[in-house]
Amino acid sequence: MRPPAEVRERVAAVHGGSALPERLRLYDGWAAHYEQDVAALEYRAPHFAASSLAIAFSAPPAGARLLDVACGTGLVGQELYRRGFRCLHGVDGSAGMLERARSTGLYQQLWQCALGQEPLPTPEEHYDAVTVVGALGEGQVPSEAVPELLRVTKPGGFLCLTTRSNLSNLRYKAELEAVLETLQKQGAWQKVLAQEVEKWERATSEEESTQGTGYISGVVYIYQKCPVPPHKEG
């Protein structure tokens, strides 16, 4: 069963080729419907990302400072909070989305920032973890913005990234993975996890559906910034 037509239309609009100001206007308008729409899509990226990141931490994450990039209405923040993260900061390009995120009460600080168009408004090597869930895709955050995420991550800190594997995002996914591999070859970080998830969310068209399942797949990547602290013997 495909998602309702109005949901498909809103998704198509924000993933279209419009210029940034128009795209942000669309996200502002979508904020009020966003959570019910992604529920209709059975969008599970926040759950998979938060679970994967929590596993990567060897110690309880309550004291870890985390930046949720493209935080939207705060769905990722909610999943992180459930897993013990308490020091959450967020950025998003949409004022409407940020208003919703602020209403959750989960974020200690929130800023408006369009990653890829401007630098993140935070100091270097400031965060124990950085997440970008849902925004790394065609028509969204450009793959060349990934090094900016590394800039604000502490050495030894983790970066959790996701992207979709549907047909219309395959070119972007290939570009993103080339950037990820180049950074690893340069010794900037090391891969901890790359997990393909079959039922990432419901497909918005038959063409996008993975082998007629009605869903598209996606990937969670976890990287650790170098130098990685030596393991401490207990």
Report strand %: 25-35%
- Shape call: globular
Q: Give the topology string: H per helix, E per strand.
A: HHHEHEHEEHEHEE
* Strand neighbour order, sheet with most strands: 3-2-1-4-5-7-6
Catalogue the unreliable spans.
Answer: none
* Spatial gap, N to C terminus: 52 Å
CATH superfamily of one domain, please? Vaccinia Virus protein VP39
Which CATH class of one domain? Answer: Alpha Beta
Please name the CATH topology of one domain.
Rossmann fold
Write down the overall mean pLDDT: 93
What radius of gyration results from the CA coordinates? 17 Å
The total strand number stands at 7
Provide the structure class. Answer: alpha/beta
Oligomer: single chain
What is the share of helical residues?
25-40%
Short description:
With 234 residues, the chain is α/β, with parallel strands linked by helices. The chain is built from seven helices and seven strands; from the N terminus they run H-H-H-E-H-E-H-E-E-H-E-H-E-E.
